[in-house]
Design a protein that fits this description.
329 residues, alpha/beta, TIM Barrel, 8-stranded parallel β-barrel, two-stranded antiparallel sheet, 11 helices, 47% helix
């Protein structure tokens, strides 16, 4: 299994240190957050690939609305050429029509293969493209994206990737999409994404996770259907779900519901969703995830004031035991 580290660098000065640390720990991939609150992703990937020459770099995730798809294709083709192919394109659906997302993603895929495409009525091809195109993984979190990932992409990034019962369901749906399209489902590359805090006590770790990662965790948990989780009913009442999702979508209130939701979901469910607790708690959870069929990479964002306990867990115990996956991606 491969292991990836997510990097949400608020300032460019953080890039080199975190990239070298990820490489030293033994992570195979470094995933760069793409958004206006972080260091610009294309520049950041280039810098990180230069200072950490064994890492594969990628976006987690870029989108087809804020970035022109032809510019995205050209950027990744150029970076693939400059790094010897150490790049992977993670792309997600913005708040837009799925069909528009699908069309733009396929356009990027065609350009990276060296094909000529019709773009706004004109024929367009990249000036240079790598012999082996960068792999394209889409963020897949529902029926349409599961099916699209299986039918037309190289694989998927599955959020809530620390939640075993959700992962089993999502991977099954992605593979079903591949079978329906006549593709080999086991050729797909599945990256399970989760959030991680390793603390001296379980209580301290959970509190830090809720404080720093509640937006990502709770948004995902509240948008997954309870049927997909095998639960008898929704995690929280519908009125609470609507109100909380509205808050999570606003930058000025995105952490406001953290305490309420943490109390409603409970510590046990938070530990099921994420990689959180003591080193022993997290080691047991990784054993459980590694036993699941279909996961090619476990990627995580490390939260906490002190990141070293989490990095030490992976450096000393996890990667020596499970590392060494499909590093060709």
């Amino acid at each position: 299994m491969d292991f990836g580290l997510g990097l949400s660098a608020r300032h460019p000065s953080l890039l080199a240190g975190h990239a070298r640390a990820a490489e030293d720990v033994g992570f195979s991939h470094l995933w760069i957050y793409d958004g206006p609150r972080f260091a610009e992703a294309h520049v950041a990937m280039t810098h990180c690939a230069a200072v950490a020459p064994r890492l594969i770099v990628g976006t987690a995730v870029t989108n087809t609305e804020t970035r022109n798809p032809t510019v995205t294709a050209n950027a990744f083709a150029t970076l693939a050429a400059l790094t010897g192919g150490r790049v992977v394109l993670g792309i997600g659906q913005p708040p837009a029509r799925f069909e528009a997302f699908r069309e733009k993603t396929l356009l990027i895929r065609a350009l990276l293969r060296g094909e000529q495409v019709d773009y706004h009525g004109k024929q367009l091809a990249l000036p240079a493209f790598p012999a082996t195109p960068p792999k394209l993984l889409i963020s897949a979190d529902g029926p349409k994206t599961w099916d699209f990932a299986g039918a037309s992409c190289d694989g998927a990034i599955v959020s809530l990737g620390g939640w075993p019962r959700y992962l089993r369901y999502a991977i099954g749906m992605i593979r079903a999409g591949a079978v329906k399209a006549g593709r080999d489902p086991r050729a797909l590359y599945i990256c399970a994404w989760t959030h991680c805090v390793v603390g001296p006590t379980r209580r301290q770790a959970i509190d830090e996770l809720v404080a720093q990662a509640s937006r990502a965790i709770f948004r995902g948990a509240l948008t997954v259907s309870h049927e997909a989780l095998g639960l008898p009913g929704p995690l929280v009442p519908e009125e609470v779900r609507r109100r909380v999702l509205d808050d999570l979508g606003r930058q000025d209130r995105e952490f406001a519901p953290a305490g309420e939701l943490a109390a409603a979901l409970g510590d046990d469910l938070l530990q099921e969703i994420a990689l959180v607790g003591t080193a022993e708690d997290c080691a047991r959870k990784i054993d459980e995830l590694a036993a699941l069929d279909g996961i090619d990479q476990l990627a995580l964002t490390v939260h906490a004031v002190d990141r070293e306990p989490a990095l030490a867990l992976f450096r000393e115990r996890v990667i020596p035991r499970y590392g060494g996956g499909q590093h060709s991606i």
